[in-house]
Amino acid sequence: MTFAGRFAVAVLALAVAAMIFWPGRDDPPPRSESTGVALSQQGTQPDGAAREAHGRPVADAALRRLFDYHLAALGEKSAAAIRQSLAAALPAGLDARARGAVLDLFDRYRAYKQAVAARTPGAEESMKARLDAMRALRGRFFREEEARGLFGDSDRFDDFSLGLLAIRADPSLSAQEKTRRAGELEAALPAAMQEARREAVAHTALADQEAALLSQGGGDDDLYRLRSRVAGQAAAGRLAEMDRRQTDWQNRIAAYRAERERLAGNARLSPAERETALADYALAHFDSHERRRLAAY
């Protein structure tokens, strides 16, 4: 994956604070019980890399991407299993000391992410204040050079996004002046980040086109052709598979709810019999990880 690709989704300025301060995913996909590999990551390769210099791990954006790749399976795998997966994925050339240092940094990174997620921002707190608070938290978990290496790129991008928001919100600027200043701000970004913005605009445009197509009665074939034309056949295939899995999950949940209501309305069954019958239904239609999620429905 290119540097630009890694930043493409993050470029949406209005989503900056939400992505940083409220991480997590609703309805994570189930885990493959036989392999321990999250289904969402099957067929993928870990993003990022772990390198060492002078016997110590290099804390950089590549290492952070590696951490995030493994942490993306939270909800599908336990924290301990994720740590084991990371340890197994480290290069064989890393000596025991460097491997231990990587895992120690991973533990601190995960603790930092938890601290960020647990923080409750004030109702009137600005995005800049939230980002500043997040950066201040890092001092509890990382040395200065570690924080700079892990977060330098994303900090620069966040600062750009906030600057862009400030320009757009400034009532004293004309439309032409806003365009000029935004262009200057973007021109100051590294070339890879500029490419990321172009990719993000393409992603947003595709989402808008999909919504318009569906609102006009377009079907799966129409959606596939649109995605193939805009993003390529490989991406269209992946998106179609994601749609299929999501639809399958929603259909099974709807059937589960209907069965629960049917059992609840059966006066001939005792409460214990209803509970047993519903458990049998869940056993037949959901795997063990999915069954743990049914309580939310």
Automatic annotation (TrEMBL):
Signal peptide (from-to): none
Region (Disordered): 27-55
Biased segments, Polar residues type: 32-45
GO biological process: lipid catabolic process; protein folding
Chief localisation class: membrane
Compartments, record wording: Cell inner membrane
GO cellular component: plasma membrane
Membrane topology per record: Single-pass membrane protein
Domain of life: Bacteria
Alphabetic keyword roster: Cell inner membrane, Cell membrane, Chaperone, Lipid degradation, Lipid metabolism, Membrane, Transmembrane, Transmembrane helix
InterPro entries the record matches: Lipase_chaperone
One MF term in the entry's GO annotations: unfolded protein binding
Similarity comment: family membership: Belongs to the lipase chaperone family.
Protein name, as recorded: Lipase helper protein
